[in-house]
Amino acid sequence: MATFIITKRPSGFYKYELTSRKGKTIFTSNPFELRFECEEEIEHIKQHIDRIFFMNFRSGSGKYFFKLILDEKEIAISRKYTTQLLMEKGVNEIKKYMETAEILDFSASIDIFGAIEEEKK
Question: Which SUPFAM superfamilies match (predicted)?
Answer without folding.
Answer: YegP-like
